[in-house]
Amino acid sequence: ITRIPSNTFRHLYHLMELDLFKNAIEKIDRAAFKGVASGLHILDLSSNRIHSIPKEALLALNAKLWLANNSWHYECDLQELLWEAQLDPNFIQDIICHTAPHEEYVGKTLLQVLDAGVNFCSMHQRTMDVAVFITMFGCFIMVIVYVICYIQHN
């Protein structure tokens, strides 16, 4: 299995445990687990090729999640998901960063990254703040140049 498309399990209302261990899953759609959210108790996605999962796919689940041994890319969406997800504490040390916006976190476990106080969401926010500031500054300069040109020509 390489992908879990939307509504794959929608008619499996009584599904309690879903073991997808050691597949080649790379992509999980937002509504992949729609229909099983209330009854699912265990979801094992460990030992796949997953680098990110849409928050919407897992946050509706009340299941204990096993996510170890994947190709995780640490970024804001994954951090938000992992803060709110019900991770199995026995396997949380096996969630390792394979890629990240900052190279110093590559190869570190989720616990090491979170214990360091890293907040990828605030990094993203700062980047957006700088972009907005530069855009506003550029617009301000254009208005000043326009006013100066207008005064010179009149």
Automatic annotation (TrEMBL):
<protein>
    <submittedName>
        <fullName>LRRC3 protein</fullName>
    </submittedName>
</protein>
<keyword id="KW-0433">Leucine-rich repeat</keyword>
<feature type="transmembrane region" description="Helical">
    <location>
        <begin position="130"/>
        <end position="153"/>
    </location>
</feature>
<dbReference type="InterPro" id="IPR001611">
    <property type="entry name" value="Leu-rich_rpt"/>
</dbReference>
<dbReference type="InterPro" id="IPR003591">
    <property type="entry name" value="Leu-rich_rpt_typical-subtyp"/>
</dbReference>
<keyword id="KW-1133">Transmembrane helix</keyword>
<dbReference type="InterPro" id="IPR032675">
    <property type="entry name" value="LRR_dom_sf"/>
</dbReference>
<dbReference type="GO" id="GO:0005886">
    <property type="term" value="C:plasma membrane"/>
</dbReference>
<keyword id="KW-0812">Transmembrane</keyword>
<keyword id="KW-0677">Repeat</keyword>
<dbReference type="InterPro" id="IPR050541">
    <property type="entry name" value="LRR_TM_domain-containing"/>
</dbReference>
<keyword id="KW-0472">Membrane</keyword>
